[in-house]
């Protein structure tokens, strides 16, 4: 088992700041969504932010050392989880902050591979340890966290059944699918696949599998691929799936997919706030029992 978790929270939340198309949000909720990082938006019991629920599930799965990757302007995280740069105590979790610095010639962070690279550079112990990495705006389950924590594979990811994801068809069709071999080792990640491509990439159980960006990584093995990750030609960012896929292409049995069939609530746009609030009312009706 490992108990290190890197949570990527340094993005600019640009999609969240777009005007709402729903009339179900209050003016206060819209204003909050415009100024806060997505994972700090109040969506839960007693106005708790999404990040609390993510940390709660991670703690239940056995994680103890949390590294929040934030950008230089995200000081609000420290009001919630501790003001020190390292080793804040929050509900018996150890919270540390890695800063994803933005290059001088850019206005936005350089991508998720860069975020993990900067975290490992700022906390060198991670170069020789194993850790899980996930987004801050997806509510991954305790089950998913535990499977990554307990797997004996050096590198792994949760391989989600696309049919179990409760999103609109348009959104689901936009997800990248993963191509696995007969032992569930990663062969390829296919962005924006056609229906035909998706249907020819089913696993042995007839399931189309997608990654929702939750990975277990071996620091020593992934480090050079993070450091040398190329910049995406269109998005102009260094993306973690690219680094992981490059590692898998050079090491055929490097990254194994762990199959799960369950939904992963997310908080991408203002419309998701209403959906997530309803989800939390149903699945977490009471105060979190830390």
Defining key terms:
globular, 10 strands, 290 residues, two-stranded antiparallel sheet, single chain, eight-stranded mixed β-sheet, alpha/beta
At a glance:
The protein has 290 residues and is an alpha/beta fold. It contains ten helices and ten strands.
Q: Can you describe this structure?
A:
- It is a single chain.
- The protein is of the alpha/beta class and 290 residues long.
- It contains ten helices and ten strands.
- It has an eight-stranded mixed β-sheet with strand order 3-4-2-1-5-9-6-10, sandwiched between helices.
- Strand 3 (88-90) and strand 4 (93-99) form a beta hairpin.
- Helix 2 packs across helix 5 (142-150), helix 4 crosses helix 8 (219-227) and helix 4 (112-122) crosses helix 9.
- The longest helix has 14 residues, at 270-283.
- The model has no long low-confidence stretch (mean pLDDT 94).
Order of helices and strands, N to C? Answer: EHHEHEEHEHEHEEHEHHEH
Mean pLDDT: 94
* DSSP strand tally: 10
- Low-confidence parts, pLDDT < 50 over ≥5 residues? none
Largest beta sheet: strand ordering: 3-4-2-1-5-9-6-10
The Rg value, from CA coordinates, equals: 18 Å
The main sheet comes to:
8 strands, mixed
Span from first to last CA?
21 Å
Helical content band: 25-40%
Which structural class is indicated by helix and strand composition? Answer: alpha/beta
Task: Note the beta-strand portion.
Answer: 15-25%
User: Which word captures the global form?
Assistant: globular
Number of helical regions: 10
